[in-house]
Amino acid sequence: MHLHHLELRAIGPYPDLVTIDFAALAASGVFLLEGPTGSGKSTIIDAVVFALYGGLAGSDASNDRLHSQHADPAVEPFVELVFETGAGVFRVRRTPQYDRPKQRGTGTVRQQSSAQLSRLADPADPAGEPVSARAQEVGAEIARIVGLDRAQFLQTVVLPQGEFARFLKSPGEDRRRLLQSLFGTEIYDRTADELAARRRAAAAEVDAADARVRDALARFAEASGRSAADEPDVPAVVTELRAVADAAAHARSDATAAAQLAADHEQAVVLRLAALDRRAALLRRAVALDDRAVAVAAARARLALAERAARVAAVADGLDAARARATRAEQERDALRERHGVHDTDTTGGTAGGTAGVRDRLAEAVGAVRHLVPVAESLPGRRSAVDTAVADAERLREQLAELDAALERRPAERARIVEASRAAAEAAGDADAAQRAVDAVQDLRRTAAELDAVRARVTDAEAAVGVARAAATAALAAEQHLRERRIAGLAGELGAALTPGDPCPVCGAVEHPAVATPQDDHPTPAQIDEAAAAARRADSVLADAATDLALERAEQDRLATVVGSVSVVDIDRRDTEATARLRSARAAATTVAERERERAAHDDATRALERERNDVDARRQVLLATSAADAQRLDQDTDLVRAALDSLSTAPAAPAAPDEPAAPDDLAGAVAALDRRVAELGAVVDAEERARAATAVADERATEVARVVADQDFPDVAAARAAQLDAAETTRLRRDVDDADRERAVVDAGLAEPPVVAADDAEALDLDGARTEKARTAAVLEAATRASVTAEDRAGATERCATEVTRAVTARESTSARSRAVVRLADIAAGAPGHNPTGITLGTYVLMRRFEDVVAAANDRLRSMLGGRFTLETSDERESGVRARRTGLALAVRDHTTDTTRDPRSLSGGETFTFSLCLALGLADVVQAEAGGVSLGTLFVDEGFGTLDPETLDDVIGQLARLTAGGRQVGIVSHVEELKQRIPERIAVRRAPGGGSRVTTTV
Questions:
Q1: CA–CA distance, 573 with 829 (Å, rounded to integer)
Q2: pLDDT (tens digit per residue) in 558-603
Q3: Of the candidates 683, 694, 689, 649, which has an alpha carbon nearest to the alpha carbon of residue 341?
Q4: For a 10 Å CB count at each end of the chain, is N or C smaller?
Q5: pLDDT tens per residue across span 785-829
Q6: Cβ density class 513-525: b for 16+ within 10 Å, e for less
Q7: Cα(799)–Cα(795) distance, rounded to whole angstroms?
Q8: pTM for this model (two decimals)
């Protein structure tokens, strides 16, 4: 990662804008950040770390130091850094949390921190592409872009003041925590913790498996009834109880067969006795049926004769009904002939003669002219419509002339409206300027009111400053007075502390002839401290009051500049003039709108008149055209109707009815009269047809009656009617015959049943003996069933419990085998003495390997410094002065000159700096490699160079210069004067006379 550009303002001791071009400074590879102690050199590094990670470089530094106390409270503090990584060029801008003055009123408001990250096309890109504007997302994105978190960054890029020597002298456990955060080896500790947890879980599983085996054996003992049963006894007990259950089941099967045999015998005896009783009853019913046989045969023969007579009577009744219908049809035919004056007896006539022929000819003549009846009826209305259309056309001609005259007047009226609208629009064009004038006057009035309020607050603030100054002066005077009184009575205070034989703290004498005594009101140190605290509080109140006064005066000057020399009268006059101007413009705008609406309405009315004129003209033309055509068609239809009347007057006639009126002189009446005559002739023809059909049906029925009388063996119809029975007698005879048939069927079926047939030769039966044997075998079966069920339940429960025991033993063995590997791994990872002789945990072992790499990288640099006298060594022994168990991360210094090993805390100041720098650079190299080969193009080293002698300083500078061979930038933060002579590129920090600091860059 390379730093290109840094800007900051209102940060730390820098109230003004500070700009640092790191790209220009790093042209030679090494640059110096120098200045007096406390001038703000470390703040530059803090700004870089804050821009990237939102925190400071020092672990014990507070973010409160970010906001400059020398800057205007209203100025926003910010840090903006442009940097480059393999992922591209980026610009990050952060503002810390700070308190700014309220925009209205007094007091401050808390402004929250913010962050913005942008991707740039190149370091000079002024805009860039926004990436994120949320602080949390910016932090995560920068960690991803840089490839380092804040802890890794502080150990690889920024070596803050006093921080990198801590790693050298820290105890092994503290070193372990630091290395763990840098290399992310928490996963190995978590692995060891997980193995330990699994070891505990495995032990718990083994204990649970043993408990399940014990529970299964207890259930087995309860089920089998063997209280002393153990794991080896389980199979034998199961075999024994299964044999007992099988024997009981066999005995139960034998008892079941004997009981079933006895029950079947008892049932057979009962059934055979019942069959004997049923046979006797059926024989008695058969005798009764034989006695009624003659009467039943007579009833059956009488019913057969009545059924043949009923068939003849039904056909004869049909003949009588047909003859009656034929008589009625002839009577109706004769009446219709008489009513309609038809005396021709040939009604079938054909097309040339007879009633039917006349009807057909009349219907044909009417059908030829029937379609002209509606035409004839419409003639008067159509003639009236033609006359009306001619009159309407004349009226429309007059209306068309009136509309043409109105349209000729419309253009002049529209021109008048347009001219009025244009004049009003010119007056309304001043509305925006008038509104701006009104707004300006209102803003000026509000500013004047704010100026009056600020002046009042300035007066109050001046009074408050006077009161605070008086209080501060009084508090300071009170403190000074107490200190003077204490100094005046100091002899008494010293004398009160003397005891005989002690030397005097002033003269050293052990004799005190005239010891001074303190006064009664001599001030105590506590009183002086309280007075000093009161003076400081009064000074703080005075400073706050002075700050408030300065803010109010600044606001007063700003408002006075805005208001100028304008008075309230001038403001009122301007307000009146601007308001009148705005009112006039708005009224003109309203007039413009009204005139525009009037013009639009006028245009709409003109278009409506044009549409109306065109519509009237079109309707007139249509009326003229249609009325001429209608008149022509009316004349044609009149001629057709007249010809139709002539044709009807010559139509074929028929004898008319006595009351038929004379022929009408209109077509509709003539058609209606002929329709009535056709209907009358049709009725006569239909009546004749019905009479002939009824006579034919009567003849057919007479032939059928003769055939049925012969078939049913009767001499005539009268004899058949005499043989019929009434309904009651028929029902009685039918019931007697059906009852006898059903009874005979029941008796015959019962006597044919096998048990009844077999009961004829039944031997002597012992029902009581059969019942006694059945009860005895049932009792034997119940006892055998109880014994079998009990034995089977015990055997089944024992077998199930045995299966549970086997399953529990198998699970215990599997759990034990599975847990052995977990327990061994957990003991090794935890450094358990019985399994891990070294006692080093898994996480410590991994850190030891990383630590060895760090020490090796540091020794590579140490061999070229301090005359090659020292190297660093690692050890897994417990460090001196540390009570904790050995961690494997102890560090020692090997002195090759004396061939001895020393504690790092015994090094001198210069040696400590050199060792710490080499260790920090080695740590940076290893962390860089562990971070996936992150390119670290910039390195800052903060302080420590003042402890080096010139020779060692040369070695250190040479070692840092070698770091720049691959294009790396190294920034040295120091106030050592000799470094200024060695390094030309520098950033100089100097305190400003008015407070704060300023930065000068030399390239």
A1: 92
A2: 888 888 877 878 888 888 888 887 788 778 778 878 878 888 888 8
A3: 683
A4: C
A5: 888 888 888 888 888 888 888 888 888 788 888 777 777 777 777
A6: eeeeebeeebbee
A7: 6
A8: 0.40
